[in-house]
Predict the structure of Lrp/AsnC family transcriptional regulator.
Amino acid sequence: MSDLDRTDRAILAEIQRDGRISNARLAERVGLSETPCARRLKRLEADGYIEGYRAVLSRTALGLGVVAFCLVRFSLHDRSLANRFERDVQGLPRIVACHNVSGTADYLLQIVSRDLDDYGVFMRDVVRALPGVTSVESILSLNEVKRYVGLPLP
């Protein structure tokens, strides 16, 4: 991050707010002409500061009314078992995030479902059947207070 100047940071901030911003509008917002702005954006992409672009979808419009966090515990800590678990989780679209964590759990999953019944079936038939899982604890989100809007840029 130390090789980023103020203009690079401004570009990153703007595209986090609007990934579909035109180069002309981006250049205007960061105080550059279009060619140098496009060049900087390509460099930021090539240097790995920008991993990709995506749309933010509405859970409500898609009928996904439940967001749950699930603490997953293993009784046996075996690398091959953990690898299988992680590989299987990658193939489950309802699990929108998975973190290997420290503390009393081994993994923290973020899961979306249509409703509580749908979530219960998914937990019983899918999550509890994943390799290595010996216990799970669900934490239901009652209200999303702050949504992920991007990474902080100093």
